[in-house]
Amino acid sequence: SAALGALLRCFPCQRLCGGAAVPPEALPAAGAPPRRRLSPRTFRSYLPRSHRTYSCVHCRAHLARHEELISKSFQGSHGRAYLFNSVVNVGCGPAEQRLLLTGLHSVADIFCQSCKTTLGWKYEQAFESSQKYKEGKFIIEMSHMVKENGWD
Asked: How many CB atoms lie within 10 A of CB 135?
């Protein structure tokens, strides 16, 4: 249904996520010669090496540029977290309402597209006016990030 499709839409990339079936025309024909395998691509988006970046601690997929960082004083489900304007190489789960430390929010869990680790969440909607600034922003827990490129 359209409502379910809207819930499964990945907001950073605007594509549907979550186990879609492979269409029959995408499968090789019976008796067709085997296709040459391409080397697997670790992640979809690469951030410039000249910028300080945050990457997934598990697979090193790029997640965000330091310039997208809004705040370091957030609390995730399992410890400290950072709030970002935008992120790359993440997928979104369906939105759900959660009562967080700062009130009721509609959030969607985000996960690394490469290793599928749950990283944090995206704020879809804030129900209190003082929290509206979080809408469309992303929380990534520190335990799932590593700093790379020029932090010294």
From this structure: 13
Joined tokens for residue 69 = 């960082």
| Residue 89 to residue 116: CA distance in whole angstroms | 10
In a domain, 93, yes or no: yes
Buried b / exposed e across 93-116, counting CB within 10 Å, b at 16+?
A: bebeeeebeeeebebbbbbbbbbe
The tally of domains found in the chain comes to: 1
- Burial (CB count <10 Å: 0-12, 13-18, 19+), residue 123: buried
Domain that holds residue 96: 53-148
Cα angle 141-124-75, degrees, rounded to a multiple of 5: 25
The answer to whether the predicted template modeling score (pTM) of the entire model surpasses 0.70 is no
Counting every residue, how long is the chain?
152
What is the tens place of the pLDDT at every residue in 44-86?
A: 655 555 578 899 999 999 999 999 999 999 999 899 999 999 9
> How many CB atoms lie under 10 A from the CB of residue 18?
14
